[in-house]
Amino acid sequence: MNVPSKLTALAARLMGKIWAHESTEELAAALDQQVEQLRDANMPEHLAGAASLTSVPAYQPGLIDLRGDIYDAAVYLDALTTSATALGDADLVEALREAGETAHELVARLAAAAHATIPTPAVPVSQVA
């Protein structure tokens, strides 16, 4: 499989060309390779960062940043859905719509996780029913 570098793909786009896989097998292999590369490159850093969190509020900055990244992806998926709709590709539209809905749901869940980092005020035992 011949996967272009980001620079090669960018150069092709600048020349009005599009690089795409030609079979489901090639695409599946590229997706698997992407996951492997991301895992190998990022997992140690993510594990070390998570291990350094020593309190619940310490999770908040990372959750806020992650939520922003996912929201950006959700908006991009919405734009892709609009574009695919204009092209008239119903299967692609449905797949993009589902991905967008999932991304928006993840944004909401990350907001809930961020809210869970707010310390709850201690309730005096005398006020507990």
Structure overview:
- By secondary structure, the chain is mainly alpha-helical.
- 71% of the residues lie in helices and 0% in strands.
- The chain has four helices and no strands.
- The chain has helices at residues 6-14, 24-51, 60-87, 90-115.
- The longest helix has 28 residues, at 24-51.
- The protein is extended.
- The N and C termini lie far apart (66 Å).
- 4% of the residues are buried.
Explain the layout of strands and helices.
Blueprint: H1 6-14, H2 24-51, H3 60-87, H4 90-115
Helix pairs in contact: 3-4
| Rough outline | extended
Biggest sheet character: none
Q: Which structural class should the secondary elements be placed in? A: mainly alpha
Kindly, what is the distance between the CA atoms of the first and last residues, rounded to a whole number of angstroms?
A: 66 Å
Average per-residue pLDDT, rounded, comes to 89
Helix content: over 70%
The Rg value, from CA coordinates, equals 21 Å
Q: List low-pLDDT spans.
A: none
Q: How many beta-strand runs?
A: 0
Strand content: under 5%
H-E string: HHHH
Give me the number of helical elements: 4
What key attributes describe this structure?
129 residues, mainly alpha, 71% helix, 0% strand, extended
Summarize the structure.
The protein is mainly alpha-helical and 129 residues long. Helix content is 71%, strand content 0%.
